[in-house]
Structure formats: structure tokens, C-alpha cells
Specification:
By secondary structure, the chain is mainly α. Helix content is 84%, strand content 0%. The termini are far apart. InterPro entries: DUF3847 (IPR024215).
Length: 73
């Protein structure tokens, strides 16, 4: 092994590590985005169901809807 090769190896390893860390960050961001989109879709869908079953809640505030639903128990 010559000196040029041995000096490049640690740099290559650092670069590969940096690339893998960036890839991991990208994948984690994609996962978080997918989870956020799924949650938003679920909330919108359930809100639409609530409004279709109880049309009187449409003009209500969030707190009023909460009180209305608690009365339904």
C-alpha cells in the first residue's frame, strides 16, 4: 500500500459516511412527509364525514363542535 492510497482511504470513508448520513436524512424526511400526508387525509376525511352526518356543525367553532360531540355521548 503506498502513501497516496492510505491518505485517500480515510477521506473516502468520510465521504461515504457523509453520503450515507444524507441519504438517511432524506429517507427520514420522506417517511415524516408520508405520515403527515396520511394524517391530514384521515383528518379531512373524518371531518367530512362529521359534517355530512351533522350538518349543523358546519358553522360552529372547534370548541362548539367539541361540546356538541360530548353531548352526543
Amino acid at each position: 500500500m503506498n502513501t497516496m492510497q492510505s491518505s485517500q482511504e480515510p477521506e473516502t470513508i468520510r465521504e461515504e459516511t457523509r453520503q450515507l448520513e444524507n441519504r438517511q436524512k432524506i429517507l427520514l424526511n420522506r417517511k415524516a412527509d408520508a405520515e403527515r400526508k396520511a394524517r391530514m387525509h384521515r383528518l379531512i376525511e373524518r371531518g367530512a364525514i362529521l359534517e355530512s352526518v351533522f350538518p349543523e356543525i358546519v358553522p360552529m367553532t372547534g370548541e362548539q363542535v367539541k361540546a356538541f360531540l360530548k353531548q352526543m355521548r
